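User: I'll paste a sequence; please echo it back and then give the predicted structure.

Assistant: Echoing your sequence first, then the prediction.
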Amino acid sequence: METVTTQQARPRLPIWLRRALPTEHTFAQTRGLLDELNLHTVCESAKCPNHWECWSKGTASFMIAGDRCTRACGFCAISTLKPLPLDKEEPERVAEAAARMKLKHVVITAVARDDMPDGGAEHFRQTIEAVRSRCPDMVIEVLTPDFLLKEEAVDAVLSARPHIFNHNMETVRRLTPEVRSRATYDRSLALLGMVRERADYRVYTKSGLMLGLGETEEELTQTMDDLRQVDCDILTLGQYLQPSLKHLPVKEYVPPETFDQLGERAREKGFVHVASGPMVRSSYHADAFNAHRGSVAESSNLES
């Protein structure tokens, strides 16, 4: 297996990946609100290339449990440091922000908290419930770590009944040891399967893959098949972009037409919704699934 090295000069971005900086007043409003409520977003902490666009449209993906991760994945820009204690007021502030931003679909993610027995699952539960209390009609999507496959952690999150439970595979089996810290390919698959098995309501499961790390189309197809084996509903495919020279280098800039072909292949395999394109990220335009499927809130049947 070819070793992925770092500290290489980054090549110039192809035209399809270049983005204009924001000029809309809404961008400053979003930043101001997040600063006022002392909230972290994966948009900024992970150096997402879409955060200019999303903030300009008044949307953001909230990152709870701090901005210090216990893992050191080779692709991720979030700091790996000893985490601080949880902020007990954070769930209510997330709910306040979601309400003031008038979101229809909220994405709640978190750093990995392997320092905690439940991996931060209870904090997820409290945040989901706070958002639902303030915004009962809002579609709630969580993007969680693997919780080291602890059933009680998965049950805690599911007890709050999020509409969409997302956990990213990130890459294909062969590249997982290089790309991800502590996570394993099989554990991530097992987590998605566990969510489906343990939920007592219709929850949609979701996962995402980064392209351009050296994977082959055959490996991507196999990963799609593996995800369908655990009945994963939603798939996102996007281009990996190197956050800094200390992170894994880009092996290939995948052209838009290849993303189109892979997206069609995924739909043929039975995913109910697929987002595939160079700028796609796990939470980018996440509300498109709601529009595609109708009312996710109704189909999840929260009263069951």
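Residues 26-300 form a domain with the TIM Barrel fold (CATH 3.20.20.70). The CA atoms of residues 75 and 247 lie 6 Å apart.
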